[in-house]
Amino acid sequence: STPAAIAAGLSAGARRGLLMKGGVVLETLGKITAIAFDKTGTLTAGRPVVTDVVAVGRPARDVLSLAAALEKGSSHPLALAILEKAKADKAPVPPAFDANAVPGEGVEGKVGGETVFLGSPKAAARRLDIGADRLAEIGALNAEGKTVSVLLANGALAGFLAMRDEPRPDAVDALAGLKASGIRPVMLTGDNRTTAEAVAKGLSIEARAELLPQDKQRIVRELQAEGLKVAKVGDGINDAPALAAADVGIAMGGGTDVALETADAAALHGRVRDVPDMIALSKAVMGNIR
Ligand code: ADP
Ligand code: MG
Question: Which residues form a coiled coil (predicted)?
Fold first, then answer.
């Protein structure tokens, strides 16, 4: 392809919200044979809604207040759901100190003199024995396709919140189209196995669950070691290492600034079909439509 054709391809993409950082990215997209998709905010809408607030030894409103306080500075989709719920239930949101995201695990900090952690059941279980009964309760929520985040306060279980996030409306068709063109889609998620499998079943996609950011990066490298050319699609929250390791890293929708910086491309409208559209554009420009 001529430089002029590549420039025309890049600007045609940009007009449709498909940003590619240069001709090499455009060219590589057409050679992709596997695509690793994040779940939350990528294959799902990323607008989870809090469905259950379970409190242990204190009122449910306090659980919501502590969780919302920790999430105030976070851009994680689950954080937005918790802040919405606190607002709807008029739960006060006290200030948090030293609040920090723990990538792939949750968020921790100090609220009202208590040291608080909010995150995945697996991450919580690394910090505290949650007990078989509570784990069973969490498992039942997961089987309904809900994601659970556990709240620990001063080393004790304070409660948990369940959230549900629906798949993006175009995900099923976009994934089927990729498979039909010989590209292997895989769902990667930090979420627990039961929830991940409930979502993956609805989308007919293979799923790898309970992954930390470095696990997602490792899986991208494993697929590359199998000889596949791998794209990684994510909102980039916690997932910069995998985006960077992929042959093409694609930031989805209103992703974070980190994602936009790390990624080679961005799908500004946040549709799953933007990914096959980018690949089709590449093939058209490079003249290798089969
Ligand atoms: P995904 O791979 O689906 O995007 P993440 O890696 O971002 O998921 O997060 C994995 C799990 O860690 C979530 O399912 C959730 O339980 C927990 N978690 C991560 N960040 C947060 C947060 N800010 N608030 C609450 N829970 C969180
Ligand atoms: Mg994520």
Answer: none
